[in-house]
Amino acid sequence: MHELSIALSLVDLGIEEAERRGVLVVAVHVRLGALSGVVRDALELSYQVAAEGTPLEHSRLVIQETAGTDLELVALEVANEHSSAID
Q1: pLDDT tens for residues 14-55?
Q2: Is 66 helix (H, G, I), strand (E, B) or coil?
Q3: Rounded CA gap, 18 and 4, in Å?
Q4: Which are the contacts of 47, defined by CB distance < 8 A and separation ≥ 6?
Q5: Nearest to 14 by CA among 2, 3, 28, 4
Q6: In Å, what is the CA distance from 6 to each residue of 3, 16, 49, 87?
Q7: The whole model's pTM is what?
């Protein structure tokens, strides 16, 4: 299941960015092509498993489906650690 390795990479990137900027990651946005070879449901489940016990545990995985072969991290949605406001 390569979706788990993808999810682990997304969580790792989110943790690195959160630590670097001193923010909380509230959502990870990805673009997922229908021809990418990645199963959406498996990626969503894998993300939940990968994020468990990490600073991204309560973050959402937001998937934008496309027709191509895309598998791309589009954005990290963040909030200040001391507020619930979105940057």
Answers
A1: 999 999 999 999 999 999 999 999 999 999 999 999 999 999
A2: strand
A3: 21
A4: 7, 10, 11, 28, 61
A5: 28
A6: 5, 15, 12, 25
A7: 0.89
- How many domains does the chain divide into? 1
The answer to whether residues 4 and 49 touch, using CB atoms and an 8 Å cutoff, is yes
Helix then strand then coil, % of the chain, to nearest 5: 35, 35, 30
Q: Kindly state whether residue 86 falls inside one of the protein's structural domains.
A: no
Domain of 70, CATH number, reads 3.30.2320.50
Instruction: Give the Cα-Cα-Cα angle 79, 50, 33 (nearest 5 degrees).
Output: 85
